Amino acid sequence: MARPDNHGVPSAHDEPHLSGRSGWLRAAVMGANDGILSTASLIMGVAAGAADHVTIILAGTAGMAAGALSMAAGEYVSVSSQEDVEQADIRRERLELKRNPDGELDELTAIYETRGLPPGLAREVAEQLTESDALGAHLRDEIGLTDLSPPRPLQAAVVSAMTFAAGASVPLAVGALAPLDTLQIWVGGATLLALGALGALGAQAGGAPRRRATIRVMIWGVLAMAATSAIGALVGQAL
């Protein structure tokens, strides 16, 4: 039987599921991926514009700092909004249970009927769950809220910022060490390797096929770096 947590959101059960990782995993993978690709693309674009080594590293460092802070702010606002919506649903459902308990029981019964239970059994299940945890039953079966992945705004913000900076440090470090005349080759190669490793790691942690995730993220990496390099070259020629 599901057990509600402190917010009234029912727990699926004690057995761990990969979907329970979705909140922090999404923030971590997105942060690192964006850090690697955006910083690498920035470096490639500036380098293609015939900039000197100091300018390239300065641009990459500024991009890393700005990107990390932007990711943190964006994740915090996004996840906070999700949390606000969920809490509003919980308050609304709690109020409806007080105002119209019979109607809510009928609604729960109808839900179980649509899932294949006979009317009598659906009513019995609805009554039993209502007696033990009415709010938890409605949150889970009517709204779809569970505690598998509760919104944690601060955690998402910190993870996004840290992983963005960690990802950005890869092309930034390679760009700082590579000779200027071959900088784009070194940064591009290191970026593709890092993106491929990240795609495989994220897929493994989330239980998804690794090969498809790896190929997908590397293809988009090539496209992004090629586009920014072309833009940088055109702007450099124009200036």
Average predicted confidence as pLDDT: 83
Major beta sheet, strand line-up: 1-2
List the total number of helices: 7
Total beta-strand segments: 2
- Extract low-pLDDT stretches: 1-7, 12-21
Q: State the assembly state of the protein chains.
A: single chain
The secondary structure category is mainly alpha
The string of secondary-structure elements, in order, is EEHHHHHHH
Helix content: over 70%
**C-alpha Rg (nearest Å):** 25 Å
Taking the alpha carbons of the first and last residues, their distance comes to: 68 Å
Give your account of this protein's structure.
Mean pLDDT is 83; it is low at 1-7 and 12-21. 80% of the residues lie in helices and 2% in strands. Helix 1 packs antiparallel against helix 2 (53-99) and helix 2 (53-99) crosses helix 3 (101-114). The protein has a two-stranded antiparallel sheet with strand order 1-2. It is elongated. With 239 residues, it is mainly α.
